[in-house]
Amino acid sequence: MQLAGYEVRQGKHLSFRAPEQKNFTYMKSLGSYYSEENVRIRLAKNRGKVKTPKHLSREARLYINITTYVTTGNREGFERWAKLNNLKEAARTFNYLSENNLLNYEDFQQHVSDVDASVKAANQRITQINSELSTQKIIQKHCDSYRLCRKVIENAKSAPNPTAYRSRHQAEYQLHDSLKKELQDFGITKIPSSEKIQKRIDNLVSEKTSTIREKQELRKKQLTLDIIQQNFSALLNTQNIALSHPLPEETL
Length: 252
Prior knowledge:
The protein has helices spanning 36-46, 58-72, 75-85, 90-99, 105-154, 162-168, 170-185, 194-236, and strands spanning 7-10, 14-17, 25-26. Strands 1-2-3 form a 3-stranded antiparallel β-sheet, with no helix packed on it. The protein has 8 helices and 3 strands, in the order E-E-E-H-H-H-H-H-H-H-H. By secondary structure, the chain is mainly α.
């Protein structure tokens, strides 16, 4: 009644007042059928039964029909509903909605969107990791070659004839300068140790493995959700759909 806009007052006797009503109406004044005790008895009896608003889409009304069985734990009622609609995947639908606490249609739709977005994000991260791995492996190769060239250049200090030495190792000098420029293009001005580069690569490989595993789990969820959505479509296209037998409205 409060949702309908009535003001409810709990005193010695329960009373209510409509939005434009001046005085409160005591429930006892409406007769014994509307006494507080009898109303509570009927509410307890009808607890778990929901009123399906007429303005909702057929999908939402169907969803309410399904989740009513979830929230009330009415396994027998669900089995009758599943048999009526000849739905092989009914148990999967029931269990998934229950285990993931998806007890209203908006939450279900949001859950589908969230899983889709997570799969997309995982794909993007895997692509990024592959790119970073490729870059790190190039840097690793360049750094290894740079160290070899640098050692050759440093040995010139102890050469009897530095000029002749440089002439003999011209290729190493040129490669050194080329590698130095390429590493600078990667933002590297100080050559990292081999161990440091390898650790970066190992961390990326580990992250890629865990992201792929996460994506696989998300894809399983996505496939399950696809089946549930197909179940909805199948139900909506069934002539004897449960919506043609709406749940009884809660009454006082």
